[in-house]
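Duplicate of #3305? Posting structure anyway:
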């Protein structure tokens, strides 16, 4: 079999612009698959004067002939999923014809969201900045072997299984002293379960490997590598494997089937919630980046922390993921800066290093390399040779530092504001 799974990943702390790129690339792939995460991810798509935010649905949904897989590694909130599908259906798309769902994907219950809120409230100042979508508690139930999976909704005793897990959650919430009504969304949840039964529910590992005999697949990651539960800035991470290896586990394919690994990064850095951010800017420059880049969460609306590009962390992510092709987003957001900085090393305890330290709480001082800004509007450019020399120098420096070519440059949110190199 010659067909491969090409993987699209975020290389920073999420919000890199994966939705647009998957939408752009999806035209080349008959199948697009989500392999981890849940409705805590918001992938924004802009085309034909319209905007959409996808939470659980793969970003190939707007491509007419593409099949979209919600994979084993995804945690699915039936209520959110139903609302998302209904919104897309208003455009005339019959979502049931374009989406298949893995039976082994775990379900997010309403009480998972309550547990998420209770856990975050209990942590006080030490909170990790959860999106409160129930992601962590759902993955916790999965690991502790208490979870419910999509395939379970086909069982005659699903209602009893649901009640049993909900009772377990209610007891936990009571022990935590968190006041809530665990039964409040039962009706809406069961309505959404019936809605999901209208989709094709598959054994994902068989479906994907069989499909690879005839077709190539684009796997879409959520969040970013620096939020990986193993290799991110723990404990300020998500609860799933956001690195390339997560595609194998989340879809049921061997590593030998991975082809291109597209690593996406922004021309600067952002982060939502708590956790280390060595290049974060607390001055007017950071505020300017936030304003120009419209850096507010697609799902939560929370303002994102902003800072200069961190090449140390980016190179770390490139190594972890085995990135073959880099994609740079939001290049145009730096158009009006006289000087542009990139972090090329850290100072930790007075010693300079080009490695990400183990200690999440270490005091890190970024060491910057400065570039002259191009001071021109990039949004109208479509050919690399037409672009300002200052910008091209910026690109060359990053490629030399990272050791991987930048294949795609985005200069605006729309599909066509994309330069293929």
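Output from current build:
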């Amino acid at each position: 079999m010659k067909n491969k799974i090409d993987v699209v990943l975020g290389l920073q702390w999420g919000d890199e612009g994966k939705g647009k790129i998957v939408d752009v690339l999806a035209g080349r792939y008959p199948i697009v698959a989500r392999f981890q995460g849940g409705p805590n991810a918001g992938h924004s798509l802009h085309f034909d004067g319209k905007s959409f935010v996808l939470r659980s649905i793969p970003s190939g949904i707007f491509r007419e002939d593409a099949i979209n897989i919600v994979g084993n590694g995804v945690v699915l909130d039936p209520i959110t999923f139903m609302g998302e599908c209904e919104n897309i259906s208003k455009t005339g798309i019959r979502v049931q014809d374009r989406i298949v769902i893995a039976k082994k994907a775990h379900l997010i219950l309403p009480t998972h969201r309550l547990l998420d809120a209770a856990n975050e409230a209990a942590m006080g100042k030490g909170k990790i900045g959860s999106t409160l979508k129930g992601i962590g508690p759902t993955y916790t139930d999965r690991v502790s072997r208490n979870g419910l999976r999509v395939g379970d909704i086909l069982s005659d005793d699903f209602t009893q299984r649901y009640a049993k897990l909900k009772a377990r959650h209610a007891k936990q919430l009571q022990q935590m002293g968190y006041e809530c009504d665990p039964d409040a969304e039962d009706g809406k949840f069961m309505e959404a379960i019936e809605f999901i039964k209208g989709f094709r529910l598959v054994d994902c590992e068989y479906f994907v490997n069989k499909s690879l005999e005839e077709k190539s697949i684009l796997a879409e990651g959520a969040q970013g590598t620096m939020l990986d539960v193993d290799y991110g800035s723990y404990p300020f991470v998500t609860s799933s494997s956001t690195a390339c290896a997560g595609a194998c586990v989340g879809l049921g394919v061997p590593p030998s089937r991975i082809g291109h690994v597209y690593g996406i990064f922004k021309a600067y850095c952002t982060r939502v919630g708590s956790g280390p951010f060595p290049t974060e800017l607390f001055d007017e420059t950071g505020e300017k980046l936030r304003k120009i880049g419209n850096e507010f969460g697609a799902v939560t609306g929370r303002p994102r922390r902003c800072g200069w590009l961190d090449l140390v962390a980016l190179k770390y992510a490139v190594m972890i993921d085995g990135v073959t092709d880099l994609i740079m987003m939001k290049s145009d957001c730096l158009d009006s800066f006289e000087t542009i900085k990139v972090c090329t090393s850290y100072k930790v305890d007075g010693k300079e290093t080009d490695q990400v330290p183990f200690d999440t709480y270490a005091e890190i001082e970024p060491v910057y390399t400065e570039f002259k800004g191009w001071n021109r509007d990039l949004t109208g450019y479509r050919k690399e040779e037409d672009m300002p020399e200052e910008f091209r120098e910026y690109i060359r420096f990053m490629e030399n530092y990272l050791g991987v070519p930048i294949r795609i440059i985005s200069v605006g949110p729309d599909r066509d504001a994309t330069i293929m190199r």
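Confirmed duplicate; merging threads. The longest strand covers residues 339-348. The chain has a mean pLDDT of 92.
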